[in-house]
Amino acid sequence: MTILIPEEYPKKLIDKNGKRLDGRALDELRPFSCKIGVLANADGSAYVEHGKNKIYAGVYGPREVHPRHLARPDRGIIRVDYRMTTFSVHERKSPAPNRREREISKIIEDALAPTLFLELYPNSAIEVYVQVIAADGGTRCASTTAASLALADAGLPLKSLVAAVAAGKADGEIILDLGDLEDKAGTADVPAAVRMIDEEFTLLQFDGEMTPEEFEKSIKLIKKGAREIFAKQTAAIKEKFDTVRKETEEENKKIEKLVPPEEKITHASGTKEEEKAGEEKSDKAEEIKEEKEDPSDTKEEEKKPKKEKEEKKSEENK
Question: What order of strands is seen across the sheet that includes strand 77-84?
């Protein structure tokens, strides 16, 4: 029999100095880090730490759709499976998928689909698997960010990366990137995903109460946080390919060292022989050209004495 311990929320989420429970400012993100290429058997993968959230995402495909009746002849489909591990939360979670996980899976699908060229993959499926190892509020946003990175790592053509973050309201103030307690004890929550190429929203949900002015302020904070996350996403992609470039350069140097010096000499002598052969060919070509030019020269020489005779005759007649 499990014993449920009621959670106690603090009375104040923001202190007198305008700082939150974890010491952040109202418009400050939680610590964020990400990495790609973390799963060897996946076509693309990513790992994201957003606050205390720890999330893996793996991409497989495009590949054949099963069951086949779900395939579309004019475009591909994207399927997301969002799951939380049993130890990701304070009280052990059931390993069976629940309604919330199915809902978030659909939300992530809708957030990522506008960034993909699905028309390039008819009768195919792109499958994304998300595993939440540790949860600390805002897992749907962090999972969307991780899934977008994994798609980029898979080499799929994308219109843009997606960066997701939430804004909310606590103690009458609009705050960015809600933690677990702020999510549960706050008065409003606005999770959103932004397509960074044009800063259009591919996900926007709202729960709670806000004035129109507060909602506009939360939208501005979301875009500000999304830009910061996007900068770290692009840095993670560059870091991977920089390491790949360095590894290839090191391998090329090792291969050059392994090549015997004799092979290098023969290769060099072969190039000299080729140069000599090329010079001989060019000399022969010039000789042929000269031979072709000779007949024209003789004709001109034959024409000269005729002209001289005609000039002498004209003088004698005079």
Answer: 32-36, 44-50, 53-64, 124-134, 77-84
Distance, CA of 58 to CA of 153 (rounded, Å): 9
Indicate if 210 and 290 belong to the same structural domain. no
Dist CA 185 CA 261 (whole Å): 73
Which domain, by its residues, includes 292? 259-310
- CATH for 213: 3.30.230.70
Residues 272 and 235 in one domain: no
Give me 292's structure tokens. Answer: 């072709």
Same domain assignment for residues 72 and 133: yes
Q: Nearest-5° angle of CA 111, CA 46, CA 91?
A: 80
Please give the chain's pLDDT, 318 residues, in tens: 344 455 677 778 898 888 998 999 999 999 999 999 999 999 999 999 999 999 999 999 999 999 999 999 999 999 999 999 999 998 888 999 899 999 999 999 999 999 999 999 999 999 999 999 999 999 999 999 999 999 999 999 999 999 999 999 999 999 999 999 899 888 999 999 999 999 999 999 999 999 999 999 999 999 999 999 999 999 999 998 888 888 888 888 888 888 766 655 554 445 555 556 666 666 666 666 555 555 555 545 555 555 565 666 666 665
Largest CA distance in the chain: 142
Q: How many CB atoms within 10 Å of residue 132?
A: 24
Work out how many domains the chain is built from and give that number: 2
Q: Would you say how long the chain is, in residues?
A: 318
Token readout for 294 is 């000779």
257: amino acid identity, one letter: K
Count other Cβ atoms within 10 Å, centred on residue 161. 21
Domain termination residue (choose one: 196, 214, 245)? 245
Is 252 within the bounds of a domain? no
Same domain, 305 and 202: no
Do 202 and 55 fall into the same domain? Answer: yes
- Residue 53 sits in the same domain as residue 122: yes
- Token pair for residue 254? 């090792």
